[in-house]
Amino acid sequence: MSKSIKKVALAYSGGLDTSVILKWLQTQYGCEVVTFTADLGQGEELEPARQKALKLGVKPENIYIEDLREEFARDFVFPMFRANAIYEGEYLLGTSIARPLIAKKQMEIAAKTGADAVSHGATGKGNDQVRFELGYLSFDPDITIIAPWREWDLNSRAALLDFARKHDIPIEKKNTEDSPYSMDANLLHISYEGKGLENPYNPPDEDMWRLSVSPEQAPNTPEIVNIGFEKGDAIAINGEALSPAALLAKLNELGGRHGIGRLDIVENRYVGMKSRGCYETPGGTILLKAHRAIESITLDRGEAHLKDELMPRYAELIYNGYWWSNERKMLQAAIDATQENVTGVVRLKLYKGNVITLGRAAPRSLFNAAYSTFEKDEVYNQKDAAGFIRLNALRFIIGAKAKKL
Question: Helix axis angle, 157-166 relative to 16-29, nearest 10°?
């Protein structure tokens, strides 16, 4: 607190943690607070956040609630899926990809309102503090960042509840109970961490999951879905054109109904520790399968393989908070260049937790039956393969002869 702060722009959900932070900023820094609540498709009513901010003394003109669902899907989720990005082989980066957008909008509001600081509710143990703050500093290197979890001594839920009671902060019933999980939700996924999941041998409770039925309870009849693509982005389901956000929401509905998209992993956090988390990404799981299917007939082998080599690095950049970095932008430009001909339709079967590819078609497909057929053809001379093999084996031949000397 070496610098005098007059106004802080706070990333505010309206939940217990950020409500305590709001009051803590007012009392600890004696500053004016601007709240920013982002609608990323988390499926919650956001108006209560406005009412709670008003009750805690925030001026009406300093309360910002923005619907970012389309921007989130169009400018963040879809570019990431063009890369087929998966962190450590499994995680579809649902939380990671939301943070750069929140940071961007928060900095815009800070500039608009003349705030000289920004604040967030991420803890000092997690990845989100890095993601938020790398974003802030990408837009304003001189901004002051207040991270309460790295400053205060309210290091338990009991301490937060006690602070809330002392300062007349409304407490929802769910916060007074022993809530088993820490959750983050948006249009792409829901994450679950904490409590019973902290033992990586414990299975998650079935009633934890919010977006999907269990595969065992999914319908016994499979569902066939056609997904249309244009230049790498999904644009239609079963022939119906949909906006990015609407399409992702529809895929969530379809996937959830068929028990698709549940994940239980132990991941390596950027700060160094391992973390066990469970994720539900029904729509994203379907979208990834479909995108790889349409790429299989529209990408040249060389670009497809190089793209797969670049993907882990790209995914790691997003996971670690480097969405706004030059290297991520450079990789994005290369990835987007491969998507020019990734246009067509993929037919999928959804059945009891599985996404099964049934077919794919594209106007510029590189699959050429004249070359690939097992029947007689007029375009491929099989005798040419002998020379191809001999030339590729030349170093083996030379090495084998050297061993005989």
Answer: 60
